[in-house]
Amino acid sequence: MKFRFSKSSLTKTFSIGLPSFLSELGLSVFTMGYNIAIAAVAGTAGVAAFSVLNYTHSVILMLFLGMSSAIQPLISYYRGAKQQDREQQTMRLAIITAIGTGFVFFVGGFFGAGHIVAMFGTFSQEIVDLATVAVRVFFCGVSIYGLQLRDDDVFPNEWPSWYGDLDYSCT
Description:
There is one protein chain. The protein is an all-alpha fold. The chain has one domain. Helix content is 85%, strand content 0%. The chain is built from 6 helices and no strands. Helix 1 (7-80) packs across helix 5. The longest helix is centred in the N-terminal third of the chain and has 74 residues, at 7-80. The termini are far apart.
């Protein structure tokens, strides 16, 4: 079998990959922009401290997005099957789990900030101090991820469509 490029296969490949490419390109430009802004304000130590925070945020965000993705089909099924009691039980469990997870991250990040920073390598004391403060402040915000999960991923099925636009414009 001989491999050949065809115009239609290239068009399909580029049309499938273009949205991902543009998303990654936009993220790269955004990352460059905030690195330049942080470097102007806090120097290279600030950029290094923020990179620790950024990697930590990615892990936590993926955990909460996973919880959100796991709950949506269950809620949809129970709503479609008109099993309101099962829907409410599932919602209650999901909210308690998300808020509990946020609280665990808050406590762990607040008291273990130095250990979290140390996981990323050996840094100068200036970077360690800056990153430790940043992790503590960030983990205070992580404690409300559970509420955000509830508001943005589960309840919008019950609210008017404009609520999501209003909610995201305020955050």
